[in-house]
Amino acid sequence: MADGTGLESAFGFIAISLFLGALGLAAFVFFSLRNKPSRSSDQSKSKETKDSLDQKTQNGRKSQTKGSKKKASSVVKSHKTQFAILKGHTDQVLDLDFSTNGKHLASCSQDRTVRLWSVKDFKEKEHKYIRANVDFDHATKVNFSPDSSEDLRQPQQPLRFRAFITALANGNTIRVFKTTKKKDGTGTAVTGEFDFPVKHKTEIISIAIASNGKYIMSCSKDTTIVIWNLKGEVLAIIDTLQVNNSFCSLSPCGRFVASAGFTPDVKLWEVEFDKGDNFRKISRAMELKGHTAGIYHFTFSSDSTRMATVSKDGTWRVWDIDVEYSKQEDPHLLLTGIYDASCNVYENMLIAMSPDAYVTAISMGRSLALFSTENGNLEEFLEEVHGDNITAIAWHPSSRYLATAGGNDRQIRVWHNAVGIKVEIDDLEGRLVRAKSDTIRGRLEQQILEARASLDKLNVQ
């Protein structure tokens, strides 16, 4: 009995040991299996996060490639010829115009305002402006009245205030504004005076007041140009017969209205008045022919003797229009310049000849090319000067500054015309070699010294 009891006890101890061992092994396996999926899940989540980040990065790169214009809008390069940045508009700036006396710059924006900037403040850190609200609409174009023009309400009275006109986006007509001194003498007030009747069926793309103060021009995207008197009455309507209009302008002398469109030509008409300043008629004057594709934009020289054009064919050209067109003499081609044809990917290009005719500026997307009008050479390329495509360029009457506006960056940038000074020096030195008298040589040498001193001040050589 004692032996059997001891054996049973031994087997019981073994059984308990095996049971406890099995229980411990089961617990180990249980906790091991429980922890393993947890680590696997964490690794899986980590991989998903990484894949997601990689995918976002790839999508970002794709987005940057496909929509590079948007991505690049935050990148604006600095250039040593930059003079000022005018800030204040809260939406894209659409057009610019300097007053003929050079004291003010007008800008219009989708923010429903027109702002008049003081040129003398450009050198300051803060840039003052006078704000004019465009009620219930916004202006797409702006143009100052010339100093010699008459009161837009009373054409027989001398101009007692500065006026300007705008093209209205929604109203699709012209609104006249005037500036007057505030009654308390604290500043200048700007008010919208009156709107012209609606005559255009499509968007207005150009407006201008003639320098002689006798008429106003407006041009729309179809083939229509309207000539108005200062009261807003229609004097004549021109059908350009160009499929559509891309740009229209008045010559600085006020004699010609010119248009470009689908065809590779620029057409000019003469606006004629009698000795009593009564409107007579509009007659065909001349055409600029030679481009092989549609013309984006064109510009007149300040003396109205030359024009420059930029075309989809990859060239820009300078023409002599000081010809006897009444005797069927055609304009003469003076110069053909070439620009990078890849720029045709942009929707539009703008061209503007400096008032002294030394430099021709051409906008190419977000960049600005400055060419010598003397020989057609590219003198300077200002790359990525705005966060979006350039919408407007305007020369100061002195040729010292060039102003540019860029779409969605809401800013106006003003540039020193260092290129113009360099081209002027080259021109003066060439004339110095050809000078035949000591008097002329002395005057040219003095002008060269003054030009070099101006260039030294800019510190951009």
TrEMBL record:
One of its GO terms (biological process) is endoplasmic reticulum unfolded protein response. This is Transducin beta-like protein 2 isoform X1. It holds the Pfam family WD40. Residues 63-75 have a biased composition (Basic residues). It comes from Actinia tenebrosa (Australian red waratah sea anemone). Keywords: Membrane, Repeat, Transmembrane, Transmembrane helix, WD repeat. It comes from the Eukaryota. The lineage of its organism: Eukaryota, Metazoa, Cnidaria, Anthozoa, Hexacorallia. WD repeats lie at residues 86-127, 197-231, 288-322, 383-415. GO terms for cellular component: endoplasmic reticulum. SMART domains: WD40 (SM00320).
